[in-house]
Design goal:
Largest interface: A-B, 14 and 20 residues
Order of helices and strands of chain B: EEEEEEE
Number of domains of chain A: 1
Structural class of chain A: mainly beta
Oligomer: heterodimer
Number of strands of chain A: 8
Strand content of chain B: over 45%
Structural class of chain B: mainly beta
Number of strands of chain B: 7
Helix content of chain B: under 10%
Strand order of the largest sheet of chain B: 2-1-5-6-7-4-3
Order of helices and strands of chain A: EEEEEEEE
Strand order of the largest sheet of chain A: 1-2-5-8-7-6
Shape of chain B: globular
Number of helices of chain A: 0
Chain lengths: ~130, ~100
């Protein structure tokens, strides 16, 4: 039995630094940058089977990386090159409703020119935590 | 069926090694000599890695004492000399210790 798609990406508008892009795909990622998994394994042979593996926190704190843990990656069609380290405001609206509007910095960007295809770009922008 | 290396206790000189992470026992290292079928210059070695200092001390260097390993399918008993120990500190890690016991017949 077919199910209607409750939501899709149609009617989505992405604006970066006041420029609206012809976007074909958007991925919004949110990761807690403090949720590190780095531990020192200190389990030993004296433990019995079924016991919890022992771990210790690292003795040194990680250096601040400026990573907010939140990024927006999008693919677009167009000739615009988005420069790395650019800063500005990224806004996404879906059907006229704002999904997010945050300050951001360009992490990485690519522009691909190929025969028999449109000029396509991709950018990843690290956005500020709300 | 395979058995877990868990619940292992290693004792030397009546003191347990602490938080042992690896044990390797090699019994025998050279061909038996002369008429005695088991007499040899190299009876074997026991290598151990651990996370605490029990038995890891210059005071124990060269000492000969009883070694007993039990649990986790590891069963060994005999006399052994503490031949070598290593202490290693690594940045952003715990201090690790290693010891080599030379088995004596």
């Amino acid at each position: 039995m077919p199910f209607e798609t409750p939501h899709d990406g149609a009617g989505t508008v992405l604006t970066w630094k006041s420029t609206t892009y012809t976007v074909t795909n958007i991925v919004v990622s949110m990761t807690d940058p403090t949720a590190t998994e780095d531990k020192i394994a200190v389990s030993h042979l004296g433990q019995t089977a079924g016991e919890t593996a022992k771990t210790l926190d690292l003795p040194l704190a990680g250096a601040a990386s400026g990573d907010t843990g939140q990024t927006v990656q999008f693919d677009y069609i167009g000739k615009t090159i988005i420069a790395d380290k650019e800063t500005g405001t990224l806004a996404i609206t879906v059907g006229g409703t704002s999904l997010l509007s945050r300050a951001g910095t360009v992490n990485s960007s690519t522009l691909t020119l190929a025969t028999q295809d449109a000029i396509r770009g991709q950018a990843t922008i690290r956005i500020a935590r709300s | 069926m395979a058995g877990y290396s868990a619940g292992v206790t290693a004792t030397w000189n009546s003191v347990n090694f602490g938080e042992v992470t690896e044990i390797s026992v090699t019994h025998g290292g050279a061909m038996p000599l002369a008429r005695a079928s088991t007499w040899t210059l190299d009876v074997g070695t026991i290598e151990m890695k651990c996370l605490t200092t029990a038995n890891i001390s210059t005071a124990n260097y060269g000492k000969r004492a009883q070694v007993t390993i039990t649990g986790g399918g590891l069963a060994y008993s005999g006399k052994a000399v503490l031949e070598k120990f290593t202490m290693a500190g690594v940045v952003n890690d715990v201090t690790r210790y290693a010891v080599t016991l030379r088995v004596q017949g």
